[in-house]
């Protein structure tokens, strides 16, 4: 395990990324954003890593969002603006990584912290966690993470969250589709581990192809999306693991993935 504002630890096929600023409610400092970007690159390049798990240190807060104490930088307005843009690059990088990602939501996920939850493919939250966008209460608006919120919710519910700043209990967030599971604290690790293990057992080549197609098609018109996805299916059928998967199914045995 490596220490810092972001801890990186490999456990079998899983890379665990932990925001380690519990005294600051795991807020998104420039160091956290840079650390997460570096950790994503590291995990993506490691062939032994098959799934990524993102969490926060401690038991109360996953991530409270941007560090309000670091809003103004010493390098001038444009440099500070570029630093803010790095959060947008981080959200995009979660979708670009070739491996599936799971958010282990160990506590409250607010503002930019909720953006990290939405950027992950799947999310498991502990009971008692709140999710929301309270920026409006300090005279700010959740500008960048709002792009992901719009893709997860309908217009009315998304606007209600960003305009009121209300916090959703985990069970309500689950009902809205912002989470995949909500479990008692004692079951959080086992539930995340089971989900990550299931993902790690799939063909990594097909997962990478499918995730890329999913995110690319998301903003297309229906005819354009279907045209793209038909070509991606043709690529998928040509993959070694597609042939192995079909053969294993017919032979009634577990597939032996080659990840290609």
UniProtKB/TrEMBL annotation:
Superkingdom of this protein's organism: Bacteria
Family annotation (PROSITE patterns): ENOYL_COA_HYDRATASE
SUPFAM superfamilies hit by this protein: ClpP/crotonase
Alphabetized GO MF terms: catalytic activity
Protein name stated in the entry: Crotonase
Family: Belongs to the enoyl-CoA hydratase/isomerase family.
């Amino acid at each position: 395990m490596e220490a810092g504002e972001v801890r990186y630890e490999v456990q079998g096929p899983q890379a665990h990324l932990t925001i380690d600023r519990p005294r600051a409610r795991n807020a998104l400092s420039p160091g956290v954003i840079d650390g997460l970007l570096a950790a994503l690159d590291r995990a993506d390049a490691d062939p032994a890593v098959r799934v990524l798990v993102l969490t926060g240190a401690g038991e109360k807060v996953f991530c409270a969002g941007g560090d309000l104490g670091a809003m103004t930088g010493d390098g001038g307005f444009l440099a500070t603006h570029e630093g803010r843009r790095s959060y947008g690059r981080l959200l995009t990088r979660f979708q670009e990584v070739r491996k599936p990602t799971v958010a282990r939501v160990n506590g409250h996920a607010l503002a930019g912290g909720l953006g990290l939850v939405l950027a992950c493919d799947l999310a498991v939250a502990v009971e008692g966690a709140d999710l929301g966008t309270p920026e409006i209460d300090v005279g700010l608006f959740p500008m960048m993470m709002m792009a992901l919120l719009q893709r997860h919710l309908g217009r009315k519910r998304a606007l209600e969250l960003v305009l009121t700043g209300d916090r959703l209990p985990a069970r309500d967030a689950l009902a809205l589709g912002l989470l995949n599971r909500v479990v008692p604290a004692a079951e959080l690790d086992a539930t995340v581990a089971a989900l990550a293990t299931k993902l790690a057992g799939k063909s990594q080549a097909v997962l990478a192809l499918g995730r890329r197609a999913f995110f690319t098609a998301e903003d297309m018109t229906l005819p354009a999306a279907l045209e793209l996805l038909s070509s991606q299916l043709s690529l998928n059928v040509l993959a070694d693991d597609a042939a192995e998967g079909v053969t294993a199914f017919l032979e009634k045995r577990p597939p032996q993935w080659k990840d290609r």
